[in-house]
Specification:
This protein has a domain of 212 residues: 3-Layer(aba) Sandwich (Rossmann fold). It is built from 17 helices and 13 strands. The strands form three sheets. It has a six-stranded mixed β-sheet with strand order 4-5-13-10-11-12, sandwiched between helices. The protein has a four-stranded parallel β-sheet with strand order 8-7-6-9. Helix 5 crosses helix 9, helix 6 runs parallel beside helix 7 and helix 11 runs parallel beside helix 13.
Length: 454
């Protein structure tokens, strides 16, 4: 029997279209010739020889059911991710397979008919970062098995990347190092890498400062870089697009809305849908919305804010990101900016921004309709609401919002909204608790005050 890793192959190539090519086991992140970021390229001719119906049947047969590790939402698509990786080197926490929720009540409140939320935070470490980290850490395990002297894996993080890296490295027995901006992440995010045994370094800077240090650190081959400029991460994250199409009966929505910080995930969304269409598993591409916090909006400034589109020859200029409730996307110098511009071109996309008030209210509005959203998902929902109110997104169109992290990681944000203690913000949708005497009468009066008499 011929194994899939003998049928299919993938490799690094320069994203800026020079002819550089490297094996996926090489410790390399940028093109040594032109300095461009690398992409993982697949033998698409080989993939296309399998009919679309067979791909669908294969992926459906594995979805949360297949033998280990193929029940994983990522490794169930192994042929499209890292086909030649030895199965024994896969490091999986059964990532992916996240719920795709139809949120009718919320949709009605914002004037739309068909809104879904892909809950990528319902996963092992509570964020979408698991989708990419399983691929990257598995690749490192493969490298080490082949004798590459990788001593540790390192990342700069605003919280979620560090949690994913430390968990997967701990599972694989590989040392991890995380650089965090001191005082700028939630306690829940800080405790995750500590608990998983990472070397946690809190630096007196912001994310962009941490990113500069970790890039310098990884210039030695024995410290492997785990940030999203490493395109192995993108390969795992693109499976969210495949999974969305699969959960919608192998169709594409009209729109995908995603929060954007370092912007690798925008690229991943586009890459997944483009491959789906090229191989015939979906008939059309969705349109993409990249949503940024107003306090950290370099992509919005370069496109929408400058009166340009992503099709123009634009440059995303770094900015000093200001403090935002959406701390994981408080990034002023996104390393995947070029990738995001290409993604917007490929998916006829737009960029929208959200103020602190808008993101907080959008998160609260969605929660009151049954969700429990992180502030970054609040940015995406606020962008959706703005585009719907303008008619850019039309009432009948199907929209999928990608929720990037679990709301429980940001309980202080939730409590602050409903206690009206978020600095400078109002809480028009607050729902504070009521303190009462422990009597039936007091409870009855509270019920009548809220709902009226029966």
């Amino acid at each position: 029997m011929v194994k899939d890793n003998e049928l299919f192959s993938s490799w690094f190539r320069c994203a800026d279209d020079c002819d550089y090519r490297a094996d996926l086991t090489e410790v390399v992140y940028e093109c040594p010739r032109c300095g461009g970021l690398l992409e993982v390229e697949h033998d698409r001719a080989a993939l296309a020889r399998r009919p679309a119906a067979e791909w669908k049947a294969l992926f459906d047969s594995r979805f949360r059911l297949g033998p280990w590790p193929f029940g994983s939402g990522v490794w169930g698509k192994k042929e499209w991710v890292y086909p030649q990786l030895a199965v024994e080197n896969v490091v999986s926490m059964f990532e992916g397979g996240n719920p795709l929720l139809r949120v009718d009540r919320y949709a009605r409140e914002i004037g739309l008919d068909d809104v879904w939320v892909k809950e990528c935070g319902v996963t092992h470490t509570g964020s979408f970062k698991d989708l990419g980290m399983t691929v990257l850490v598995s690749a490192v395990k493969e490298m080490r098995a082949r004798g590459t002297p990788v001593r540790a894996v390192a990342c700069a993080s605003t919280g979620d990347t560090s949690a994913a890296l430390s968990a997967y490295c701990a599972g694989a027995g590989i040392p991890s190092v995380v650089l965090l901006p001191r005082g700028k992440i939630s306690t829940a995010q800080l405790v995750q890498p500590i608990s998983n045994g990472a070397l946690v370094l809190e630096l007196d800077t912001d994310f962009d400062g941490c990113m500069k240090v970790v890039r310098d650190l990884s210039r030695t081959k024995d410290i492997y870089l785990a940030n999203s400029m490493n395109s192995l991460r993108i390969e795992g994250q693109k499976t969210a697009s495949v999974e969305i199409a699969q959960q919608l009966g192998w169709t594409s929505p009209d729109w995908i809305v995603i929060p954007g910080g370092n912007l690798g995930n925008a690229s991943a969304v586009a890459k997944g849908f483009v491959l789906l269409k090229e191989l015939g598993l979906v008939e059309r591409l969705p349109r993409l919305v990249v949503a940024q916090a107003e306090q950290a909006n370099p992509l919005w400034r370069a496109t929408t804010g400058a009166g340009k589109s992503a099709r123009d020859d634009v440059k995303v200029e770094p900015m000093a990101a200001r403090k935002t409730l959406a701390s994981a996307i408080q990034i002023g110098a996104p390393v995947s900016a070029k990738r995001a511009l290409r993604a917007l071109q490929a998916l006829d996309g737009v960029v929208e921004q959200a103020s602190e008030q808008e993101l907080a209210d959008a998160a609260a509005r969605a929660d009151l309709a049954g969700l429990f959203t992180c502030p970054h998902t609040g940015v995406a929902l606020a962008a959706l609401e703005k585009l719907a109110s303008r008619g850019t997104i039309r009432k009948h169109e199907r929209v999928v919002v990608i929720s990037t992290a679990h709301g429980l990681k940001f309980s202080d944000f939730k409590v602050g909204y409903h206690d009206e203690t978020l600095p400078g913000l109002r809480s028009p949708l607050k729902n504070g608790s009521v303190k009462l005497a422990a009597t039936l009468g007091a409870v009855h009066d509270a019920i009548v005050a809220r709902f009226g008499r029966g």
